[in-house]
Amino acid sequence: MNPVLFIVIPWFTAFFVMMLFPYLKKISGYFLAGSGIFSLIFSIFISREFYSKGVQSFSMGSWPAPFGINLVLDKASIFFLLIFNIVFLAVVLINLFEKKYFPYFNLIILVFQGAFSGLVLTGDLFNLFIFMEIASISMTALVNRSSQKGSSEGSYNYLILSAAVSLFFLLGIGFLYSSTGTLNLIDIFNKSSSIPKEILSFLPVFFIIPFALESELFPLNGWVPSFYSKGDYAVSGFLSGISGPVFLFLVLKLSLWIFPAGELSVPLLILGIITLISGELSALVQKGLLKMLAFSSIGSMGLAMILVSQGTVKSVGALIFFLFSLILSKIPLFFVSNYLKGKYFTDRIAELKGIFRIEKLAGIIFAVSAFSLVGIPIFAGFRAKLYVFNALSEINVLLIIPVVLVIAVEFSYFFNAVQKLFFLDSEKTVLPVEKKQITRMYLYISLLFALGLFVFGFFPEGISKIAEEAAKQITNPSLYVTTVLGGM
Amino acid sequence: MNIFSIGSAVLVLVGFYGLFSGKNLFKSLISLNIAETGVNLFLISTGYREDGIAPILSAKYPFSSLAFVDPLPQALVLTSIVIGLAVTSFALFLMIKIYIKNGTLDFSKLSDSNGGEEL
């Protein structure tokens, strides 16, 4: 079993959809569903076969690494692929019930799926660049497809910004190649001591800038709010549930493997703290649900980046668990808000006051995921915050201060939103009357995610064990050397 | 420091200056392309060798030789040109859409990047 199928199957299907969709409009959604189901089943197979076997490397076209391209499969990437494909299938199911997206949407989302699988799997720097570009083009196309006002401007902004910063990445690749003579991540780790001091002093800039943009770090996150609140329905949940965490995982890999001496850790820590504070404070003053969630997701990325910057086994383990609980709670939050916006044409909290009296299921899901995100006991988010506290307090007690502040801020705006959406003012009861038929699939799928928050809140042992094992593996790149560079 | 690195640095600086100072969307895209050319020139120059020959095994050079230029950066640049083309064409498509909607490509006159929505 070769994990290249994760990349090939979606792109092959995308090609088919493109060729066939003038004739077979109705069934292109089933192609998408087919690709989604295949990838999920395949990722289950891959995790059963390779999880306990340690690091695996697959060279393409039987050119052994570092001369050829290779894909690296470790515990962390197996775990990410599994979650990624579950989220993907959720979006596909919604898409099947939401008929209006056929077939352009299906095409792009298949390209997106292949690109993100590639980002998780790839073992060399130049392919990372290519997958990043494909991912950002397909993300732009997804948002541009939206019928909402300003979507073209928002997506144009993002496209130009990401193209500009990816030039930095390309320059960084050039400098690394000229000083080490290789593009393989593990081979670079092997030769990292041979990078001259004068190059090493400015090299981190070239890697921090592009990834700061993609993983929503301050000050390059200006695109996030308009981007996420403009996407139609399922898209924004999908983007925030997958793209942020995947890029964060990549930053982790780069900081541990290319800069093993920790050149990235201080800049990432500072950026992380600023992002955390600025994101959460901006979320506090938002009046629309989707913008509030977008800023809150910026804040969470900041917290995650603090964990990345430390790079100890415990902090990386906490990071993986934190991302897991973040995905589980962000997706239902976005889906429910999108559902409300689709049905009542607004996402402003003031206009939706008391809406959860009518939409009871949506209300329960929203409240559960919001409270888990904040870190209220019995939910998975509480366990995640606990691991984060443990990991950070071991390194430096001062690091806990921003985290505590943020929990307080998060609590206040989520509590405020939940309270307003549940309770009516007795004087003015103006609920939106205008509404549109929209599939309830959003709610059913969100319900599954919210149930997951309960289950993993009570039984976090399985996930925390995976997180710990994956962290032990990824923080020790010398484990990879013999497997990946066996051809040397 | 050879002529290629200096040239690429100049191109990148010109490109980024245009990208961040220009108000017209079209001009910013052109600046992006200029910067891209600079980066590609830099990548090519990392594999450049004075008096180097094409890395092809021939009767004169039956085995790999130190006289060869490094082919890997060339392959990379080829790929990055293709990617740049894709980004440019997609950006042009978006630009046409923006122009049809707003009647202008002036960044400051567009209804602001948030789509004219407060908070």
Give me a quick take on this structure.
Chain A has helices at residues 5-20, 28-50, 75-97, 104-121, 125-144, 151-180, 185-190, 197-214, 223-230, 234-257, 265-284, 289-310, 313-344, 360-374, 380-395, 400-422, 441-458, 461-474, 478-484, and strands spanning 56-59, 70-73.
Helical residue percent band of chain A: over 70%
User: End-to-end span of chain A in angstroms?
Assistant: 24 Å
The number of distinct β-strands of chain A equals 2
Task: Summarize the biggest pleated sheet of chain B.
Answer: none
Tell me what the structure shows.
The complex is a heterodimer of chains A (488) and B (119). With 488 residues, chain A is mainly α. Helices cover 72% and strands 2% of the residues of chain A. In chain A, helix 1 runs antiparallel to helix 4 (104-121) and helix 4 (104-121) packs antiparallel against helix 5. Chain A starts with a helix and ends with a helix. In chain B, helix 1 (3-21) packs antiparallel against helix 2 and helix 2 packs antiparallel against helix 3. Residues 113-119 of chain B have low confidence and may be disordered. The interface between A and B is large, with 39 and 37 residues.
